Amino acid sequence: MFAATVILALANWPVPAADGRTQFPTTGVLRIPVVLVDFADMRFPWDYQSRVNMALNGYPGDFPGADEFTAAQYFKTCSGGRLDVRFEVAHITLPKVSSYFDKGGNRLLGEFLELAAAKDPALDFARFDADQDGMLDTVIFIYAGESRTNTDYWFADWSHHVDYTTLMERVDCGPISLHGKLLDRCALIPQQFTDGSPVGIVGPVCHEVCHVLGVPDMATLSPTIPSRTPGVWSVMDTGCLNAGGHCPPLMSAYERWYCRWLEPEDISLSDEPQRLVLPSAGTERNRVLRLEFPIEKDTISENPQREYLLLESRTQQGWDRELPGEGLLVWHVLYNQSSWEYNVVNTYGNSRVSPAYSDVGNCDALWPSERGISWYLPEMSDELLPRLKYREPFHPVLTDVRYDALRREATAILSTACERPEIPVRLNEALITGHRQVTVSWQPCEADTVFVSIWAEQNSGKPRYVDGCCNEVHTAAGDTLRVLKVPEDLWEAEHYVSVTPVRRLPAEGDTLRFIPKELNYASSIEDIALPADAIPQYYTITGLPLRERPTEPGLYLRRTGRRTEKIFIH
Fold first, then answer.
1. CB count in 10 Å sphere of residue 511
2. Torsion of CA 224, 6, 40, 201, to 10 degrees
3. Disulfide-capable partner of 190 in 99, 147, 354, 553 (CB 3.0 to 4.6 Å)?
4. Which of 304, 327, 302 has the alpha carbon at shortest distance from 314?
5. DSSP letter string over 150-210?
6. Could you give the CA distance from residue 138 to residue 186 in angstroms, rounded to a whole number?
7. Does the pLDDT at position 171 exceed 80?
8. Span 131-142, pLDDT tens digits
9. Residue 452 C-beta-side C-alpha neighbours within 13 Å
């Protein structure tokens, strides 16, 4: 499912095979019909059909780059050349205005298909049934104008993937047959988003072809019940709209495995540290590792379950050039057949295929994280721990995670334990230093960096980080102070501040609990403890701390160690 093009959960989604992978043929030639739909009052530009054909199939000719970043090339790259997708593009004009189809428009899909077949006799629908089940694999309609979501029928929303077989059971419409093949599933894609900006065709079409191959949605289909999803990291989520739909990311390690194009190497936990080397996806040396959880034997034979981690490396090149970063990705997969069969993988609060976060508070999926987290310790988060019952203790530890952009590979050390450094650190008393302003400080320590987080407890049990302070990186030598602007609704709430010193790995830190309203006021800036070698701290002339050196003209206070002086900025 993707923004502005909503795909609905399907009741008869293809059932995975016994090994949890697709049963649809994923090698050889796959032909996909694409029908451009004009309305009487809304039409594509005169050259739109040729532009769509080039975006999907490539430019005519045999020169270098002729088919680069086309939908056809996308599947050649993801499949390692095993799948050759060929798009056949037709163009029809409906005699009715676009608003005519706003209510119950899906009943008129037969009209679309019949017009397409009549206008282009070469469009032989009998050829669009790769698995030979008597059903059309799909028909992709791209319609002129903006995404249309203001309809009465839930199943008549214009921007979605239609399960026509299920639709017939809900509205008054009969089966549609063309050239001996029944319509089962089809997709409708708008020419433009609701704001009028153009939809890049490659990403949405690749998304829909993945559905043909049996890959379920990785986005949530229940937006009111949040689930963690891959987002921009998956073509089956919002990733199909990366760069406005022009550059979807490579299919994830899980999605390529599901399509039988990838076989991960199985690894196991050991007391002896193992060095992992993972060349990135999209390279000839690409390597994916799988770490299976030792769960209890599944007692529900009708709904087989598996749980494991998939480790892969991603780099910002080629199809992945629009990703937010590069490094190690760890996919947490919790499979049960029914969730796949009903296309609700990451729905109703469940997250069954999603990246494990290196930095949970900042929703960072990469190792090393943007803030430098290059380790995983079970005592600090449950990201890599089983959600099902397991037979034996399972405590993976990742350390020394690195990414080499030149070699395009990630490395890490996997083990079951590690020796954490001992670095004493102590928080000072928090003080009120201004209107709705609190200053927290800590004693200097012998670490490389210090991670600082400040949060308030919520009724949901989830932390609400204050002033964006979540795993904030401070230098250990002199940056030992944080000025906090507290929202009015949190002034009487229970707060926590934690400092964690890091020297390659995190040490035991210190945590302080406080309620802002109950804190003491700083009588002067001398109350705020600073080490002798601290970087200068700046204050207004009345003693209010500033987060950085002032640039506006005026009189200020500057404090270094125990020395305070007035300075004039002009």
1. 11
2. 140
3. 147
4. 327
5. --S-GGG-SSSEEEHHHHHHHSS----EETTEE--EEEEEEEE-TTSPBPPSHHHHHHHHH
6. 5
7. no
8. 888 888 888 988
9. 28
